[in-house]
Design goal:
Oligomer: single chain
Radius of gyration: 37 Å
Structural class: alpha/beta
Helix content: 40-55%
């Protein structure tokens, strides 16, 4: 017999889903009967109703029995009304999977009720039998599903000390016989149930309970979990129909099972239209499955785009970029969320869809529209839909068929939504009046473990205090003993009997559907590549500034390089520079590709999301990136090569020019793919940076230019064979020198005067008595290069390129989307709760209470202990100031010179002791108004009057107000207590002692009930505090500052479950009652939560106020205002927060025919508010408080105190960042050892003198990867300062800069010392104490230099990507003029006269080389002599060239291989070599001092650029505009 309550629930859902109205059956059965109802069964209909799922239009509506419906098994009827098409409709009645017990499929005519607009828009896209994609049948069944993760949910914060102490701790663990295998813990425990076709399951649970884990497992996203046991079956039926298990579904149904994560991941530079068009194209069905026969791809895309943009109200934003939080402006947060939902819906996943907290950031009305669209889609497609929502209003709840309540990884309830509340009431709970069902369901799971009932989260039926379940295990046991669970288990077992695990038996083998069952992607691989290619071009086009800036930088560098090597002569003087320009061309284009590393990691989350959506294979994306690279890289190479080639006067024949262009292009493409490959195969940017640091040195050194192949050490010589740059360099050298005839001129001609037959040339490949040297002979003798290898080398480079692309594709394919696993709470060592400490030491997973997050921390529930609360609240700071604002207008400039009005004529006040809600639809301007009132707007024009107690805002206003931002921005390595202490120390008045401030912090910790996690590190989401704890910390940080005026809060409940949201609002209520003035924006408040507010400010689109005033008891004043002014009546059980949004027309398809802004402006309430504001101003001006001494202080504490606090926090942050520090150390160690073994025990030949120079130069090349590594830290610290700490006036910007610089210095000095010891001794440099000490000292200066240089670039860049692009450009610019790439003598006079002396590396190299070559004897090798015949009349070689040697240096001796011949070596000691490159030992201290000055200069520019970026530039522009 059907439950009467079920019938009423069915009606509620019917109303919510715009179904045909029916009459509900009489209520006749008791509540207790519901507990015996089978879980998994949908509510049976009224005897006069049959629930139907209309395949194509009217979803799961209710049709009268009289509608020509047959009740026989498997009967199909074609019924066509006048002008109607035949529509297939599946009939559902009570059954195990939501269908009739016999699995009847019935065909009836379209319902006589007209379709809603949403149904009409969706009907054409989800009602076709798409043979390309159709699953065997929809629905999902899970049986004994258990998921385990690694760890105990808590860990100790890593520090740099672990590097040294780690081995000793490991040894101690061996003695204690601790298990080396990490413990596992259960995240999901033994779940059983079924979600049938056309059913929607609501997943409820507190953050960390396991909701995301459950959804990921059901959606077959199992990466990151240690073990998943039990069965998950997709599809199947009760008549012997087969199902598909998870392993098979991974191969055959990946495109039909969707998991949509909570985060909004999109390309910032794509518009909304481009984003959705790409998604629609990626899931394009076959021609026969489109909405109209023969419909074109363009027509289908346009029609689907129109549908989803209408459903989600995105028409106005189609041409707007998505944007991001840093550089690119774009759509609002709510609009971005709607784009994410629309993108996921476009997948048309027909088997199972899982949505993880997708309503976060949406207003209540938009959230209802979103769930309604899912309801309609589920009905039409007949799929299973699972949705996790943290805050679900009653309207949302009624749209679901079933609900799952998860408590710490255990099933507390699974069954029909209508049975959930009666079930809980039957076991001893009572739902308080006006509580939503979802609030009630989640609240009962939050019980204290001490046995005392929490009056906030549940009300226990009198007499049941000792009988109700309290722990997760008790809830699970209670549910398993219920009739609901037994019926549910029976249904699943019966279903399993008809399923063949791992096979699809629904269709006969060989059928068309069977043949296409394995098609996970609707586009062919080629189509995927083409779609991704077009998308990547659009991404590039959307960021034209970066692209054009990059090309402009390349042109600038090309002009610099071209002028450096301007008009090279075809003589021996131009030989080395000619090789240098070819080497620099290769090196510059290769280093530009280094920026791909940052790009690879920034786009990875989007790639993985699209992979999970089955839009395209990651391999297709890898190939598409390469295809996009081709034209862009060609332009880049063309710009560089055309300028450099002709300015340097390289061989001017068409064949040689285009050959060089081809070689450069192919090599640059290979290097882009190389760095992209490293990124795809690396797990983190730090790890990738370590690899690239060594790789760059190998690429540079083993090219053959710095070290000729004949001088390479055998143990590393093999690197040249796997170095694509080496093949490119040989090809360029062969192309350039093969036809070049090199004329020998002084100083290479020995002696410089005399007869030709008695002269020799110092150039390798020369022959005695020959005035010129063949270019082919030169490259053969010097490098063992041949022109004949050119095309072979091009082929090898292409092969490397293809290999790198393949490895990139493999790396991307191996990456896992939506990695699951256990979130971890991280504690500072020595600050863990005792039971957590025991669990960590003993490795016992069972000690951790929370199954997904780890340590269970009781949330702040102010009200559990009234006496303690009263005492604590007495200690909370209070204020008596009133904040008023009038005629507030805010506008921003837009394209075309126009302005857009975001706020218009807003006025109001915030009084102490009042809790004020600021609400409105998405895009109404809530956050904008909040930021404007808090004086945090730095863009556009703000007008209006802002007063505190009738007086202009004091200078201390931003410091004296608390502003809890929505993003929860905190320093991730700080503990909770440290974050609160930092705020208290720098924001409370300086007349309070440190002891008093820290004591107040303990008060706040007690107030928030965060004592147990006071030693926990903030961390990042997933490894640190959970969402609620982070939100509490955000509020606590503001409270710790003792705000003197008022508290602003932006979305304090966003992302929290209903219980946590209620906690937060009740806490704010207590603050207001204690005397604080509180104004906060809020989304989706339940009626019980809304009741806690005193007043409301309601905005509509355009930033206009439509209501400001008291809410009244049960929101009576608010409802009365809208009903009196033409709004529809508010139903007795309707949530007032949802009612008011409906009235003013917020949401899809809800447009009001009234201008509520004008109605408010002309209302009596508006006039009354205006009078109140004027009275407040007048009264406060007359009787207001006297100005306080601190009112005109921008910062509470002196500058020195700020610096000490910030620097201390920065040092702690670096101490707790071992990944960064170890990465820095390892990069120094690896590159130092690489340098050592490359130049191991340098000898005394001429080439060894050059090797000394290049070993030093190689030291300089470690700076680009080190800079790439340190820049993100600087930018992240700046983002934290800019987002929260600067706006709150916690400390001065100079304190931030000092705090960013100082911690880098000691670690860099230690790293430099490690490098020195790895490098210096093995190379064989002088061992005298002065040389060793001086070299170490100047190396330490170099460490300081690159830190300052890198932070200087970062301080001028808006984001990490642009900073990384600037590194190779500026590094090449600095290094080009120092005399290594182009010797001093070969530098053009223009550059030699000033730029050579302006380059800091000039003095660094001179300091290094002058000391390391002094006193070193030189002995030429066999191929380094200049050989010549001794003229008649000379008795000895010394006699013949003695005068020349006296002038030029070097030495001469008889040639033992040539009778009557001499051989000349141009260097006899190291000083002669050094002087040849303009290096002098006597300048050593001058160089040391000048380079020190450059280090100071770099840090000074960091201060300057930081000031400009953090507001100085705006101040300068404002000052200039005032002068005009």
């Amino acid at each position: 017999m059907a439950s009467p309550r079920r019938a009423s629930d069915a009606d509620a859902r019917a109303d919510a889903d715009t179904r045909t109205e029916q009459q509900s059956g009489p209520e006749s059965e008791s509540t207790s009967s519901t507990t015996a109802t089978a879980v998994g069964r949908t509510p049976p209909p009224h005897p006069n109703e049959i629930p139907i799922s209309v395949d194509g239009l009217n979803g799961a509506g209710y049709a009268d029995k009289s509608d020509n419906m047959s009740t026989k098994d498997s009967v199909y009827e074609d019924i066509r009304g006048p002008g109607e098409e035949i529509t297939t409709v599946t009939t559902h009645t009570s059954g195990g999977d939501g269908m009739h017990p016999l699995g009847l499929a019935r065909s009836i005519a379209r319902s006589r009720s007209p379709p809603t607009e949403m149904e009409a828009l969706l009907s054409g896209f989800f009602n076709k039998d798409d043979a390309d994609r159709k699953t065997p049948s929809s629905g999902v069944t899970f049986h004994n599903l258990t998921v385990k993760g690694v760890g105990i949910g808590a860990s100790l914060a890593p520090t740099n000390g672990d590097v040294l102490l780690g081995p000793f701790r490991a040894l101690r663990g061996l003695f204690r016989r601790q298990s080396r295998k990490p413990p596992t813990r259960t995240l999901i425990h033994n779940f059983t149930g079924r979600v049938g076709p056309g059913e929607m399951l609501l997943v409820l649970g507190r953050p960390g309970s396991g909701c995301s884990t459950f959804l990921k497992t059901i959606a077959n996203q199992r990466a990151g979990f240690e073990e998943v046991s039990g069965q998950v079956i997709y599809g199947g039926g009760e008549n012997g129909g087969g199902g598909i298990d998870a392993k098979t579904a991974k191969k055959t149904l990946r495109g039909e099972i969707l998991y949509n994560p909570e985060e909004d991941l999109h390309y910032a530079t794509l518009t909304v239209k481009e984003t959705l068009k790409f998604a629609i194209n990626a899931r394009m069905p076959g021609r026969e499955a489109r909405t109209h026969p023969g419909q074109t791809r363009k027509g289908y895309i346009a029609e689907f785009l129109h549908a989803v943009s209408m459903i989600f109200n995105l028409n106005h934003a189609l041409k707007t970029p998505i944007g991001d939080e840093y550089v690119h402006r774009g759509v609002s947060g709510g609009e971005k969320k709607r784009v994410s939902i629309a993108e996921a819906m476009v997948t048309k996943a027909s088997c199972c869809q899982c949505w993880d907290n997708s309503t976060r950031g949406l207003d209540a009305s938009t959230a209802v529209d979103y769930v309604q669209s899912l309801r309609t889609l589920t009905n039409m497609a007949g799929m299973a839909t699972l949705v996790a929502l943290y805050q679900a209003g009653e309207q949302l709840y009624q749209k679901f068929d079933k609900v799952l309540v998860i408590h710490e990884g255990r099933c507390a309830y699974f069954g029909p939504t209508g049975d959930a509340k009666p079930y809980l009431e039957s076991i001893g709970f009572i739902c308080p009046p006006r509580w939503t069902t979802s609030d009630f369901l989640t609240s009962v799971t939050n019980l204290n473990l001490n046995g005392e009932g929490d009056q906030v989260h549940q009300i226990i039926r009198p007499g049941w205090e000792t009988r109700v379940p309290r722990t997760a295990e008790e809830f699970e046991r209670c549910f398993r003993e219920s009739e609901i669970y037994r019926e549910n288990f029976k249904v699943v077992e019966e279903f399993g009997k008809g399923c063949t695990n791992g096979a699809d038996n629904t269709h006969p083998a060989g059928s068309p559907r069977d043949k296409k069952a394995t098609k996970n992607y609707t586009l062919s691989f080629g189509g995927q590549v083409w779609a991704c290619t077009k998308r990547q071009f659009l991404v590039m086009r959307g960021d034209r500034m970066s692209l054009y800036g990059k090309w402009g930088g390349i042109l600038f560098q090309a002009l610099i390089v071209g002028s450096l090597f301007y008009d090279l002569p075809s003589t021996t003087v131009g030989v080395f520079p000619r090789g240098g320009v070819l080497f620099l061309a290769l090196l510059f284009n290769a280093l530009l590709a280094l920026a791909e590393l940052t790009s690879a990691f920034s786009s990875r989350p989007i790639l993985l999301k699209h992979k999970s959506f089955s839009f395209y294979r990651p391999a297709a994306y890898a190939i598409a990136q390469t295809v996009v690279d081709i034209p862009l890289t060609f332009i880049q190479v063309l710009i560089f090569d055309v300028v450099v080639y002709f300015m340097a006067n390289l061989q001017r024949t068409a064949g040689q020019f285009f050959t060089s262009l081809l070689i450069l292009f192919v090599l640059t493409m290979a290097m882009y793919s190389f760095f992209r490959m490293i990124g795809s195969l690396s797990g983190s940017l730090d790890g990738a940076t370590r690899v690239t640091g060594v790789a760059i040195q190998a690429l540079i050194v083993y090219t053959g230019y710095l070290i000729p192949p004949t001088s390479m050490r055998p143990w590393l010589k093999w690197l040249k064979w796997i170095n694509p740059v080496q093949y490119g360099f040989e090809a360029l050298m062969g192309n350039e020198f093969d036809t070049l005839d090199i004329k020998c001129e002084p100083p290479f001609l020995v002696p410089p005067v005399g007869e030709q037959q008695y002269q020799g040339c110092l150039l390798q490949g020369s022959k005695p008595g020959q005035p010129s040297v063949s270019g082919a002979d030169y490259i053969q003798a010097a490098y063992t290069y041949r022109r004949s290898h050119l095309w072979r080398n091009v082929g090898i480079i292409v092969a490397f390129w293809l290999l790198f692309v393949v490895l990139t594709a493999i790396g991307m394919e191996k990456q896992k989307a939506n990695k699951g696993g256990a979130a971890v709470t991280i504690y500072k060592r020595g600050k863990t709760p005792q039971h957590i400490d025991d669990a960590i030491n003993n490795g016992e997973a069972g000690k951790a209470k929370d199954e997904e997050v780890g340590e269970k921390v009781e949330e702040a529930v102010v009200g559990e202990k009234p006496e303690e609360d009263a005492v604590v609240m007495e200690r909370v700071a209070k204020n008596d100031s009133i904040f008023t604002f009038q005629n507030v207008n805010y506008s921003i400039p837009i394209k075309g010179g126009n302005r857009r009005q975001l706020l218009k004529g807003v006025q109001g006040y915030v009084r102490p002791g009042r809790l004020v809600a600021l609400m409105g639809g998405s895009g109404a301007g809530k956050t904008t108004l909040l930021n404007t009132l808090a004086q945090r707007i730095n863009f556009g024009t703000v007008e209006g009057t802002f007063l505190v107690d009738g007086r202009p805002l004091p200078k201390s206003f931003q410091r004296a107000t608390g502003f809890a931002e929505q993003q929860d921005v905190h320093e991730p390595t700080a503990t909770v207590r440290e974050a609160l202490r930092f705020s208290a120390l720098l924001r409370q008045p300086k007349d309070a002692s440190i002891e008093e401030k820290y004591a107040y912090v303990e008060t706040i910790l007690q107030l928030l009930e965060m004592q147990d996690i006071a030693g926990a590190v903030v961390g990042t989401p997933g490894t640190g505090l959970n969402q609620e704890q982070r939100k509490l910390l955000t509020i606590g940080v503001e409270l710790a500052s003792k705000p003197e005026l008022l508290m602003f809060l932006d979305e304090p409940t966003s992302g929290l479950d209903s219980g946590a949201a209620l906690n937060i609002i009740r806490f704010l209520r207590k603050l207001a009652d204690a005397g604080q003035a509180v104004l906060c924006t809020i989304h989706q408040p339940s009626a019980i939560l809304f009741e806690h507010f005193d007043e409301l400010m309601l905005l509509t689109s355009g930033g206009r106020m439509v209501y400001h005033g008291p809410l009244g008891k049960d929101s009576h004043d608010l409802i009365d205002y809208f009903e009196r002014n033409g709004g529809h009546k508010c139903a007795k059980d309707q949530n007032p927060a949802e009612y008011m949004l409906d009235v003013i027309g917020v949401g899809e398809g809800k447009k009001s025919n009234k201008d509520w802004g004008d109605i408010w402006s002309n209302s009596e309430e508006y006039s009354e508010r205006t009078r109140e504001i004027e009275e407040i101003i007048t009264q406060r001006q007359q009787t207001g408080r006297e100005s306080r001494p601190n009112d005109e202080l921008e910062f509470a504490m002196p500058w020195a105190t700020q610096v000490r606090a910030v620097v201390k926090r920065s040092f702690i942050s670096y101490w707790r960042s071992p990944n960064y520090i170890v990465g820095k150390f390892m990069l120094h160690i690896f590159t130092g050892l690489f340098n050592t073994f490359t130049f191991w025990k340098i000898g005394h030949k001429e080439i060894d003198m050059q090797s000394r120079l290049f070993s030093i130069f190689m030291t300089l090349t470690i700076s680009p990867p080190l800079i790439q590594q340190l820049q993100p830290r600087f930018i992240n610290l700046r983002d934290i300062f800019e987002a929260r700490e600067s706006a709150a006036r916690i400390y001065h910007w100079t304190a931030f800069v000092i705090g960013a610089i100082l911690p880098e210095i000691p670690y860099s000095l230690v790293a430099g010392t490690l490098y020195f010891n790895c490098w210096y001794w093995g190379v064989g440099f002088p061992r005298d104490s002065f040389s060793v000490a001086y070299t170490w000292g100047i190396l330490m200066l170099f460490e300081l230099f690159y830190v300052g240089f890198g932070q200087m670039i970062a301080s001028a860049a808006p984001n990490e990507l642009l900073a990384s692009l600037m590194v190779p450009l500026l590094f090449m610019f600095v290094v080009s003029f120092c005399g290594v790439v182009v010797p001093y003598a070969a530098l053009p006079h223009f550059w030699r006269s000033w730029m050579y002396y302006l380059t800091p590396f000039t003095y660094l190299l001179e300091g290094f080389l002058g000391v390391l070559t002094r006193g070193v004897k030189v002995r030429c090798g066999e191929n380094e002599w200049a050989r010549f015949s001794l003229p008649e009349g000379y008795g000895a070689c010394q006699e013949y060239v003695g005068g020349f040697i006296t002038q030029a240096g070097g030495y001469v001796e008889a040639d033992p291989e040539m009778e009557g011949g001499c051989r000349f070596c141009r260097y006899s000691v190291g000083e002669e070599f050094a002087e040849g490159v303009n290096v002098f030992w006597r300048h050593r201290w001058r160089d040391f001092g000048i380079f020190s000055a450059y280090c100071v200069f770099n840090f000074a520019v960091v201060f300057l650029c930081s000031w400009l970026y953090l507001g100085g530039w705006r101040k300068l522009k404002a000052r200039l505009s005032r002068r005009r």
